[in-house]
């Protein structure tokens, strides 16, 4: 027990913990805003637990005679899914998602009490809408949620709910995370037939599909690296700069020029966009003769030196 408390105390003392906590908190505030102001007014059901909670809230009004608060339903549903996350995905993901999922309901409650969406509805709209049209509400919600999902997935967390289901599908069936979100979300969208007309359900399905595409786009953008291939007579100078200044590993290939039939060395390296800019500046400033090709890589597996490890390596040099 003492060792666990010691480990927890040491975790609280790290900058990484507070940085990730801040990211998760801000992410969930944006998520709460997206759900409450762009889904709740029109009862637009996107394939998410928030959308599913709106359905449950609407059904409760029909069955019980009063409408359960969406924030309360979200809290209950997320609590059930969190138990699944802990056992099926892992303790780190489960712990982080526990925090994000449990604060979403209270965040929406704050908006319900202090800044109700009724104050922002556009007058004259056939369907209650903050943007004046449910399609604009849909697009705004999808963009906000997709960006938050991509950022939280990057730190092994999620917004809870549907993300938990998508992460389970991603882990055990090895689908892309965007595809997993689309499949799980599509099933939830179909529950909207209980409270919405057909055209609103179709809008929700389209929004869910777009959400999966945009999540993959944002995820690829956040993880994007440059695969750079360089052929140069000054390959040794370039190699030293990459290793000593950028602190990246390189691979050297002996090649033969098809036109000149000369033996040459090709350098291959993976760099961040910032590091690629620094390398190109060196080659330009020192007028190094080089033939360079580069392409984007969205996923990297294996060892990848972090900025903290780069700084430590430079201090040793």
Helix % is 55-70%
Mean pLDDT: 79
Number of domains: 2
Biggest sheet statistics: 4 strands, antiparallel
The span between the termini is 41 Å
Strand order of the largest sheet: 2-3-1-4
Helix-strand category: alpha+beta
Shape: elongated
Order of helices and strands: HHHHHHHHHEHEEHEH
How many β strands by DSSP? 4
Number of helices: 12
Low-confidence stretches: none
* Share of residues in strands: 5-15%
Radius of gyration: 25 Å
Structure in words:
The chain has 317 residues and is of the alpha+beta class. It folds into 2 domains: 2-222, no CATH class; 225-316, Alpha-Beta Plaits (2-Layer Sandwich). The protein is built from 12 helices and 4 strands. A 4-stranded antiparallel sheet has the order 2-3-1-4. Helix 2 runs antiparallel to helix 6, helix 3 (49-64) packs across helix 4 (70-88) and helix 6 (134-154) runs parallel beside helix 9. The longest helix is centred in the middle third of the chain and has 26 residues, at 198-223. The chain is elongated and about 85 Å long. It starts with a helix and ends with a helix. The mean pLDDT is 79.
